[in-house]
Amino acid sequence: MRKSFNGLIATLRDYNITKLNAQYLYVFSNKRHNRVKLLYFDRTGIYLVAKKLEEGTFRWPFPRTAEETILPLAPETLQLLLDGVDLRGPKLRERYRGEH
Q1: In the chain, is it the N or the C terminus that has fewer CB atoms within a 10 Å radius of its CB?
Q2: Three-class DSSP category at 37
Q3: pTM, whole model, 2 decimals?
Q4: How many C-beta atoms surround the C-beta of residue 24 within 10 A?
Q5: What is the pLDDT, as a whole number, of residue 32?
């Protein structure tokens, strides 16, 4: 989690995201899952927000496939993740799952 603006943008380019989209919030986590960084582009500049947990970890949902490295999250799911809900156990009903 040493990367700042340019480092995180370079990471996005590694995944063929060459232009930031103002409709998306890009979320990064460290290997221990006790820190997250959120990158947001508002068409005039970039916001970088970080959160470090004093105890515990963020529990990310399981990817749909083994090859999936980018997880699309609905805003509600991201809020649950940041609030400390374990997203590996509960499943959202199909009608609530965001399509991204």
Answers
A1: C
A2: strand
A3: 0.77
A4: 13
A5: 92
**Which residue type occupies 88?**
R
Domain ranges of the chain: 1-57, 59-100
Smallest Cα–Cα separation from 36: which of 79, 68, 69, 66?
79
**Are 27 and 35 within 8 A, CB to CB?**
no
Cα–Cα distance, 88 to 11 (Å, whole number): 25
pLDDT 10s digits, 14-35: 988 988 998 899 999 999 999 9
Dist CA 32 CA 11 (whole Å): 18
Phi, psi of 67 (to 5 degrees): -85, -10
